[in-house]
């Protein structure tokens, strides 16, 4: 599931290194920079219109996050999809979001939040009908973000988002799974109903199944894109 990312428009008032980092990271997650691809630093610097220093600093951050390998004086290569890291991301996300939906089911959500979440689900269905899978994915993020935000824990979403990057990469680098996408949207509807009706344990079990379904996508990825070494 791939689509071309927009060009980077640098804001010179903000740290250039982090803007480059996030732009490159998204290209890797969305599969535009495919697993195993060599990144030509000179070409990147020219395309981004940046000096070598912030680019090198951004690449070091990506290496730390296990998205690239850097061999001095040789090459910079996009890492293969690490199945173990995908599994780690799934485990963390299922545990954290499971606790979130369980708490929301026990404490309840407002009618306004319920209405907002339902609108997001309806928007997903609309995008799905148009085969606009990029929008489906972005609305998916917003749906989960809205639920997490209801606990008013400032850093919780940031932690969750940071621990889903390899999970999202596995989804985006797999062929489009139309049945899986529709099932995911249906699970959003079921999850919202479980939360509203106060069914905490079923909500937790559903989010676990929702997250771990990524391994259905992994089965469809070309074997040469995968690594099972940690």
TrEMBL record:
One of its GO terms (molecular function) is DNA-binding transcription factor activity. Residues 14-81 form the HTH gntR-type domain. Signal peptide: none annotated. InterPro entries: GntR_C, TF_FadR/GntR_C, Tscrpt_reg_HTH_GntR, WH-like_DNA-bd_sf, WH_DNA-bd_sf. It comes from the Bacteria. Keywords: DNA-binding, Transcription, Transcription regulation. This is GntR family transcriptional regulator.
């Amino acid at each position: 599931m791939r689509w071309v990312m927009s060009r980077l428009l640098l804001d010179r008032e903000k740290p250039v290194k982090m803007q480059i980092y996030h732009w490159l990271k998204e290209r890797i997650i969305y599969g535009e920079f495919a697993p195993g691809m060599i990144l030509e630093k000179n070409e990147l610097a020219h395309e981004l219109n940046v000096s070598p220093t912030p680019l090198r600093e951004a690449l070091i951050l990506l290496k730390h996050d296990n998205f690239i390998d850097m061999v001095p004086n040789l090459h910079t290569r996009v890492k293969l999809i690490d199945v173990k890291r995908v599994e780690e991301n799934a485990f963390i996300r299922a545990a954290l979001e499971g606790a979130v939906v369980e708490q929301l089911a026990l404490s309840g959500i407002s009618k306004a939040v319920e209405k907002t979440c339902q609108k997001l689900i309806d928007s997903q269905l609309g995008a799905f009908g148009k085969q606009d899978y990029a929008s489906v994915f972005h609305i998916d993020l917003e749906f989960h973000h809205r639920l997490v935000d209801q606990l008013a824990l400032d850093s919780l979403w940031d932690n969750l988002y940071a621990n889903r990057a390899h999970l999202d990469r596995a989804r985006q680098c797999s062929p489009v799974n139309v049945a899986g996408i529709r099932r995911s949207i249906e699970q959003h509807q079921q999850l919202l109903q479980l939360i509203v009706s106060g069914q905490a344990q079923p909500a937790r079990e559903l989010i676990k199944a929702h997250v771990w379904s990524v391994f259905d996508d992994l089965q469809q990825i070309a074997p040469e894109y995968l690594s099972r070494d940690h």
